[in-house]
């Protein structure tokens, strides 16, 4: 394993090589006990997708992920329209779900508290698919997503805070193309995609403070943040033991309401007791 913590390149030679273009990526943390917490992009023509679609994100569940049946990663669904990527199920049967229109596909696997996992939902050619860490886990015939005029929510939803994601979210992207398995796997470990063809939203969370997360796709779909926390480090900038085990970061966060920096317990950040914590200071 080799790493340059002060430079711009990090190479990890465990079961795969990871090269990234920046060392400043962050993630957002959604503490379950906070009121009125959300990350929301106002609806736009570029987000109101009809047809081919890819929704992807890195997520790490906190220890309270099983306290509610639904936990949204991305939500732009309403009354059988739009799309959503979420975790669903009880404590013993949590699984990933991708919804398009009135259809859905679900996996047998789900979030694991304390583990960074990349999950992507893809619709194209009448089929919806879910990729977990770049591997196809589920597919089914499905209705296409359709325009609904509602806002897009990250780590949250308009349906109440109890349905929010519980944990951290990083590198969230929306595409108006149906990405192939190879494309998903190739770019899930790349942080800077710029204005790639078909990319309509790309939230990298590099700001580290404030109440806005910029969209780096060039489409202007910036996120308004309320009562969520910036977390130093992301799955792309932290030491990674191996993809199946996960990456771990620094227990520090910045309140988006007042900019204050505070320490967070391992439980707050979804790091299980006794697990390594290889992030920044």
List the helices and strands and how they pair.
Elements: E1 2-3, E2 10-11, E3 26-30, E4 38-41, E5 53-61, E6 70-78, E7 81-88, E8 95-100, E9 103-106, E10 116-124, E11 127-132, E12 135-141, E13 152-154, E14 167-175, H1 181-187, E15 199-203, E16 212-213, E17 223-226, E18 229-232, E19 252-255, E20 261-263
Antiparallel strand pairs: 1-2, 3-14, 3-18, 4-13, 4-17, 5-10, 5-14, 6-7, 6-13, 7-8, 8-9, 10-11, 11-12, 14-15, 16-17, 18-19, 19-20
What features would you describe in this structure?
The chain is mainly β and 281 residues long. Helix content is 2%, strand content 37%. The protein has one helix and 20 strands. It has one helix at residues 181-187; strands at residues 2-3, 10-11, 26-30, 38-41, 53-61, 70-78, 81-88, 95-100, 103-106, 116-124, 127-132, 135-141, 152-154, 167-175, 199-203, 212-213, 223-226, 229-232, 252-255, 261-263. The strands form three sheets. Strands 3, 5, 10, 11, 12, 14, 15, 18, 19 and 20 form a ten-stranded antiparallel β-sheet that branches. An eight-stranded antiparallel β-sheet has the order 9-8-7-6-13-4-17-16, with no helix packed on it. The protein has a two-stranded antiparallel sheet with strand order 1-2. Strand 19 (252-255) and strand 20 (261-263) form a beta hairpin. Mean pLDDT is 77; it is low at 1-24 and 239-281.
